[in-house]
Amino acid sequence: MTKADAAKLPLMLMTLRLPAISRLWQDLGERADREGWGAARFLAALCEHEILERSSRRIARHMDEAHLPDGKSFANFDFAAVPGIRKAHLMALAEGDAWIEGGANILLFGPSGVGKTHLAAAIGAALVESGRRVLFSRTTDMVQKLQAARRDLILPATLTKLDRYDALILDDLGYVRKDQAETSVLFELIAERYERRSLIVTCNQPFSEWNQIFPDPAMTVAAIDRIVHHATIIECNTESYRRRTATKNQDTENTTTKI
Ligand code: ADP
Ligand code: MG
């Protein structure tokens, strides 16, 4: 290779947007010369680095856009605290694959403080790590966003844009109230994604109380039908983790004081 070629390389690699190759070609080139690699091996090694970096940049970007709450992973979830939930089952779901390909859903039910949001976020993070795109939002925020879109006559386009996410996490669906605002946009979202794109929903009310969410009984039935048709339902029926840890801390403090 001539000096002129080498001088042109940085600009060419930048034009082609190959930052990893741009950074590595000299060192790797020297190693290739030293170890007598052929041209194909050298080129393959460079491409491999570029592909790996591209993939980790993509994952970092998708993690950012997912707006997941910080620090909620499987690693710091105490599975023993929630009887009836199997870690292996959750981990298998988090790998995505079949259910997410078919646009199936995950529903997490249970009272406040039992770890529904934590689990939904952990599943979301694992999905992003495995190359999926996820968006976490409070259901009330999503409803507001969709209502604004409807006012601006761009609801269909907004729903289509949400298609880019393999899974939408709707946290606290039960906090949406039909008298709070018109929640039929929520129904439209559910209907739009049905059998195509997944929803991960947390809710502290059983289905029997969903008539408080949707404007009329027919819509409630239709929403429940679509959401449960292909769904894994996870019931977190245990005592609030928040309350339990608070009590435990208090006990420890009390013991400490006694000592
Ligand atoms: P929910 O959404 O069911 O109301 P959260 O997921 O917000 O409950 O949990 C409340 C708090 O307790 C969070 O800080 C969460 O990280 C923590 N938490 C809940 N369950 C567990 C658990 N089993 N292991 C570890 N932390 C937990
Ligand atoms: Mg929650």
Give a structural overview.
- This protein is an alpha/beta fold and 259 residues long.
- It has two domains: 3-66, no CATH class; 79-243, Rossmann fold (3-Layer(aba) Sandwich).
- The chain is 56% helix and 10% strand.
- The chain has eleven helices and five strands; from the N terminus they run H-H-H-H-H-E-H-E-H-H-E-H-E-H-E-H.
- The chain has a five-stranded parallel β-sheet with strand order 2-3-4-1-5.
- Helix 2 runs antiparallel to helix 3 (39-65) and helix 7 (139-151) packs across helix 8.
- Residues 72, 76-78, 81-82, 110, 112-118, 202, 241-242 line the site of adenosine-5'-diphosphate.
Keywords:
single chain, 259 residues, alpha/beta, Rossmann fold, five-stranded parallel sheet, 10% strand, elongated, disordered C terminus, binds adenosine-5'-diphosphate, binds magnesium ion
User: What is the annotated CATH architecture of the largest domain?
Assistant: 3-Layer(aba) Sandwich
CATH class of the largest domain: Alpha Beta
Low-confidence stretches: 253-259
Bound molecules: adenosine-5'-diphosphate, magnesium ion
**Largest sheet, order of strands side by side?**
2-3-4-1-5
Please give the largest β-sheet: 5 strands, parallel
Strand content: 5-15%
How far from one another are the termini? 77 Å
Please give the structural blueprint.
Blueprint: H1 3-15, H2 19-35, H3 39-65, H4 87-94, H5 98-101, E1 105-109, H6 116-129, E2 134-138, H7 139-151, H8 155-162, E3 167-171, H9 184-193, E4 198-203, H10 217-229, E5 231-235, H11 241-258
Parallel strand pairs: 1-4, 1-5, 2-3, 3-4
Magnesium ion is lined by residues 116-117, 171-172, 202.
